[in-house]
Each structure stands twice: as structure tokens, then as C-alpha cells.
């Protein structure tokens, strides 16, 4: 019995895949986005900042279980560097620093909410 050769049944058309691949394609842009939110604590930080307009780092430490001060600080700095959050230092003693989503961070939230919905639907369908 001969193995199926489905590749011979599919018409071979020359497709322009530059919209997906290449240095300015969809894959590159999605990869850039995923790099910005990669990290164990970045999503909890973003969703916490989405829930409240301004949050102090001490509240983030309290509200995100198991995160260390070091990791929280590292992820906050990375999110700030990527332009997703804004840090406001009030220059007071004791130090008071607050974080909030930037416009770019706000623009990312519908994408994350859609990913959340996809995850919920996928879980329901597979269980």
C-alpha cells in the first residue's frame, strides 16, 4: 500500500509570505510583544495595574503572592524600559514610588484580555 502524498494534491502557488515572515513581518512583531511580557511576574503586574490606576510597589508585593522584592523590582524596570508602565518617584522620605500603565500598556490590555478569554474557552473545550 502506498503512503498518502497529500503534498502533491495541494496546488503549489507562489505566495508572498513577507507579511508573516521576515524582519518586518507579523512573526517579528508578535515575538517583540511576547518578549515584553515574558517573565513570571510581568503579567500579574500588568493585570494588577490594569485593575487600579496607580499602585505602590509595597501593594504589588502584598498582592502578588511569592514575588520577591528583587524580582518585582527587576520586572518593573523591564516593563518601564519597554514603555508599558510609568514610574513616579515623589522624592519623599520615606520613599514613595507609584506605578501606572502608560498609554502603550493600556493598548496592550485588550490583547491580554483576548488571550485570557481564549485560554478560558480552550480550557472548557479540552476538559
TrEMBL record:
The keyword GTP-binding does not apply. SUPFAM superfamilies: Winged helix' DNA-binding domain (SSF46785). GO terms for molecular function: DNA binding. InterPro entries: HTH_HxlR, WH-like_DNA-bd_sf, WH_DNA-bd_sf. It comes from the Bacteria. Residues 20-127 form the HTH hxlR-type domain. Gene3D superfamilies: Winged helix-like DNA-binding domain superfamily/Winged helix DNA-binding domain (1.10.10.10). Keywords: DNA-binding, Transcription, Transcription regulation. This is ArsR family transcriptional regulator.
Amino acid at each position: 500500500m502506498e503512503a498518502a502524498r497529500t503534498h502533491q494534491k495541494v496546488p503549489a502557488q507562489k505566495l508572498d509570505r513577507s507579511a508573516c515572515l521576515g524582519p518586518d513581518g507579523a512573526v517579528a512583531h508578535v515575538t517583540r510583544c511576547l518578549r515584553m511580557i515574558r517573565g513570571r511576574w510581568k503579567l500579574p503586574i500588568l493585570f494588577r495595574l490594569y485593575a487600579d490606576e496607580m499602585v505602590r510597589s509595597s501593594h504589588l508585593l502584598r498582592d502578588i503572592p511569592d514575588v520577591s522584592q528583587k524580582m518585582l523590582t527587576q520586572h518593573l524596570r523591564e516593563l518601564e524600559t519597554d514603555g508599558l508602565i510609568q514610574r513616579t518617584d515623589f522624592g519623599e522620605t520615606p520613599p514613595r514610588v507609584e506605578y501606572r500603565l502608560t498609554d502603550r500598556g493600556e493598548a496592550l490590555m485588550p490583547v491580554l484580555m483576548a488571550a485570557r478569554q481564549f485560554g478560558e474557552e480552550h480550557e472548557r473545550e479540552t476538559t
